[in-house]
Amino acid sequence: MDSAAPIGGGLLINHTSTGSQTAGTVPFHGIYNASKAALASLTEGLRLELAPFGMRVVNLVTGAVRSTSFFDNSPPATLPPGSLYNVAKDEVEKSMSDEHTAADGTEAFAWAEAVVRDLSSHTNPPPWVWRGRHATEVRLASHLPVGATDGIMRKVSGLDAVEQKIKEKGWKQE
């Protein structure tokens, strides 16, 4: 590399998710959450590694966004016949299908406008940009002790119904 060659000025944006954060981890979405957590970790490393070259690296942490085709090519979310979660099949499959995202997410165009505004209104954008429904809540909950949001996640995922049905059936843990 020629020592007179210009360096810097680049912007790298990695698109992660609130699911990458412990407080945003939704049960039954483990593979997705893990992939986004890995990307968030990579983004942090790159942010530091590329800084000497004038590169800015941003972690775009997105919550629920509706009006997208994210789930269009996904197979239906169904539990296998022998699943222990079948005691609350409807509730769990609803969570697995992520129906609530389609209903209560931030409208896609509004999300995109906010992200563009966040990233273009600064000469040095923040290292993390939080956008989408529930992003602020996950950001704040990330400062709470691990487990503080378990009750909310049990309800969102249908695990509260699973637990209740297990109690009703009198099944015992060993």
Write the layout of secondary structure elements.
Layout: E1 11-17, H1 30-50, E2 56-62, E3 65-66, H2 89-97, H3 99-104, E4 106-107, H4 108-120, E5 128-131, H5 135-141, H6 150-157, H7 159-169
Q: What's the helix-strand series?
A: EHEEHHEHEHHH
E-strand count: 5
Give the overall shape: elongated
Question: Could you tell me the mean pLDDT?
Answer: 88
Characterize the main sheet. 3 strands, parallel
Number of helices: 7
Main sheet: strand order:
1-2-5
Share in helix: 40-55%
Unreliable residue stretches: none
Helix-strand makeup class: alpha/beta
Question: Any idea what the radius of gyration is?
Answer: 20 Å
Strand share of the residues? 5-15%
Question: TL;DR of this structure?
Answer:
With 174 residues, the chain is of the alpha/beta class. The chain is built from seven helices and five strands, in the order βαββααβαβααα. The strands form two sheets. A three-stranded parallel beta sheet has the order 1-2-5, with helices on both faces. Strands 3-4 form a two-stranded parallel sheet.
